[in-house]
Amino acid sequence: MGSIAADSVGIAQPSDPTGPTGRLANWIGKVTLGDVPVHIQNRAKHIILDGIACLIVGAHLPGSEVAAKAIFDMEAPGKCTVFGWGGQKLSPLQAALLNSTFIQGFELDDWHSEAPLHSNSLVLPALLAAVEHDISSQVSTKKAPSGSDLLLAAIVGFEVGPRVGLGLYGAHILSMGWHSGAVFGPSAAAASSGKLLGLSPGQIEDALGIACTQAGGLMSAQFESDVKRMQHGFAARNGLFGTLLARGNYIGIKRVYEQDYGGFLACFSRGNGKEPTHLPEEVAKDLGTTWKTEGIRLKAYSAMAGTHCTVDCVRDLQEKYPTRMKDYKKINKITIEMGQAMYHHGGWVAERPLKAIGAQMNNAYVAATQIIDNAVTPAQFRPTNLDRDEVWDLVEKTTCVEENDLQHKFATRLTIAFQADGDSQPSDTVESHLSGPRGIFPELSNEDIIQKWRTLVSGLIDDSRRQKIEDLVLNLDSCEQLTDFIELLTPPTKNPLA
Question: Are 119 and 188 in contact (CB under 8 A)?
Fold first, then answer.
């Protein structure tokens, strides 16, 4: 654990132990792995494995390589590993930024069902950079963090991020144009890294305050900007920065979640049309009794989570009407009805040409790829596949509609109208209405996650390395040396689109 000064005045305890920020900081400081139910620990290991799969897929994507080379050019070498790059190292902040960018690299990573954010891309890069920084800086006076410490700290981040998001009504912030995970995320990164490095509750309050004042992210990044892949990286970097400053007794904003003037929740909720505008009590609600880790969903498709129910509606129709759906050139019109947050996030009108980032965020485009290719994998978003006439013909026939009476926030209704085909097909429309996508109904099982991991990394790393990573992560609480984990993630990986 890191060296701390818990006896210093104003550092050992949060400024108001009874308020939401203080209760959260105290819980982070005191929670042990023994307090976490075994099934939550086991699920967290599988969630982490999914995050490592996404990192390996993302490390050498074209946009990731552009980002990495630019940062290597502008930053001096450091002591924290950029994973998949054969030993390249940067400062802890920049390593966290890039490793997060890799995890977010191709819309394959986790998301939260109550308050949308991508937990692995926030927590894992901050934690692994904190481990290497702590070892290399020789600040520690205690035993270096173990796999059990990493697992507990990851779970802390998994618990904190969604709670902070629920203080802003979760997905509603997407409707306002904010990138939700980039707003909620610094808190998750600060909480997890602060736990790993052994900060006192008072220091954790400071770390959260420093992290929150750096929060932000514009959802317009989703249309064509590479920076959408990096915005969770900003959050991971900024949360870790808050932790490292607070460990040195730098004072952050006190009571940051409940402050009225300039407080985190007060500012990000301004003008949201809600009454009350924000919910400070959600930040520390049911800590240790309700586990938000259970709300982390793993993706079955390589696209934004709000498109997944659309994909499953198409799959449903392909199963029910296989001959009809294969004859996609006879489709006249596609209508996709979805709730407010998904509509604002993924119901916008796509215009040709489109980059991979925009295509993965757009319900019409994703529906077209499922109809034509019967798949939504990284291959559908290769540059050679993004400008296909048959895909754009269907995109141009698609209308997305905001419909808030679908009974479930993830529900989608998809209707396809075909050209009339005589008596053999008396109805010229088919419809599918699902309450939510695979990954929610049902959620991916632990066995599904292992299979996804093996499928994604096949061909990108050798089988021996794959098995060693899998065994280590699924037995993380038995890992004594986290340097073993870091060494497995260090060697070069391959570009899945090559």
Answer: yes
- 342's tokens: 């998904």
* pLDDT, tens digit (0-9, with 9 covering 90-100), for 51-96: 999 999 999 999 999 999 999 999 999 999 999 999 999 999 999 9
CATH architecture of 305-434: 2-Layer Sandwich (3.30)
Cα distance between residue 161 and residue 292, in whole Å: 9
Give the residue extent of every domain in the chain.
20-298+445-489, 305-434
User: By the 8 A CB rule, do 268 and 215 touch?
Assistant: yes
Task: State CA 458 to chain mean position distance.
Answer: 22
Distance, CA of 154 to CA of 415 (rounded, Å): 41
CA 211 distance to own-chain centroid: 18
Structure-token pair, residue 257: 């979640």
As a whole number of angstroms, the distance between CA 112 and CA 96 comes to: 21
- Alpha helical stretches, state H, 59-146: 62-74, 92-103, 119-137
User: 274: which residues sit within 8 A by CB, 6+ positions away?
Assistant: 169, 172
8 Å CB contact between 240 and 126: yes
Catalogue the E-assigned strands of 274-428: 296-297, 331-338, 398-402, 412-418
d(CA 411, CA 312): 11
Burial class (CB in 10 A: 0-12, 13-18, 19+), 214: middle
pLDDT in tens, 133-165: 999 886 555 688 999 999 999 999 999 999 999
Question: What does CATH list as the number for 20-298+445-489?
Answer: 1.10.4100.10
Whether the upstream peptide bond of residue 353 has omega within 30° of 0, thus cis, is: yes
